[in-house]
Each structure stands twice: as structure tokens, then as C-alpha cells.
Amino acid sequence: MSPYTIGLTGGVASGKSAAADAFAGLGITIVDADAAARDAVARGSDGLAEVVAAFGEDVLDSDGHLHRPTMRRKVFEDHSVRRTLESIVHPRVRSALQAASAAAEGPYVIVAIPLLAEGGGREAYPWIDRILVVDVPGDVQVSRLLERDAVDRTLADRMIAAQADRLARLAIADDVLVNNGTKHELAARVAALDAQYRSLAAMARAS
Hints:
The protein is an alpha/beta fold. 57% of the residues lie in helices and 13% in strands.
């Protein structure tokens, strides 16, 4: 039986990684979509070959890896580029995540998917049992992004606008983790969710 699976998502700079780290600290396996996405377009992969065919050799660095700053600029300047890139990467990521989730050990597994809403939500991930959205107010999201990535306000706004809006993410949530406080407050909220998920997983195994 595959582990009870929680899809973890949230907007850029919402604190998804901090939440995932907190769950990991409680002994929960984390399956990371960002890592799967990097593998999907690794040097020499079929995925990278498709990206080059779609966007040209200038998306590669001198060593033949995807040049992420160039690709990011293209994505945020043209929505059609983002859609094409997602059509290449998302199916590969979904397949890898499902396989890794099924192989995970523990009472339940967290699958961290930043673009879960953008990538099709529940329809694209029917094997996920529950969705947890990490949520922050828009002004907190912007200030964290400016500090974290050292970008200007224009690029920060474009990065946020390129994702699903806050209401769209909340619409797919079974649970919402509000992350607008301290690390201690986040840890306490994660601990409460961990207890809930262990109970739900135990009931699922017993049924």
C-alpha cells in the first residue's frame, strides 16, 4: 500500500521549504518537485533536448546545462514560453513524483509541489490524498521575495503574477498553513498538522 500522501504547495516566498524542513524534522519523507524538475532537464536528458528544440541553444550554458537565469527571463517575459516549458517539464515531474511517493516509507509522505495549482491541481495528481497550502499575505510575500532573491520590485511582481493567484491555491486546499509569524510558530503549526496526518494515515491503512 502506498503511503498516505500530502501535496504541499504555496506561492513563491511563502515558506514552503521551511514548512517541508519542519515536517522532515519530525521524520517525514519529503519528495521534492523542484529536484524532479531539475532532473527532468538535466544535461543530456530528453527533457533538455526538447527545451533546446523549443527555445534554441541560447538557453544552454557553456557546459551544456540549462542556463536557468536565461530561461527564467524568457518565462517571465512571455507567458507562451512558460506554457511550452511546463508542457515539457510537468509530465516528467508528475511521473517521477508518483514513483518516489509510492516508494517512500513512514506514516505518510509529503510531496512538495510549488506549481501544484498551475500544473493541474487534483486532476493532474489524483494519487494525492490531501493538499496543504502554505499561505502568506501578498505584502509579506513581496518583501520576502525582494530580500531572498535580491530582485527589484518589477521582477518580483512578475514572478508572483506568473503563478496561480492566492485564491486559486486556497481553492484546492484541504488544509492551510498560515506562515506569517516566527519559526517557532511555524514549527508549532507543522506539529499540529503532523499529528492530524498521522491519524488520517492510520485510518486509511485500517480501512
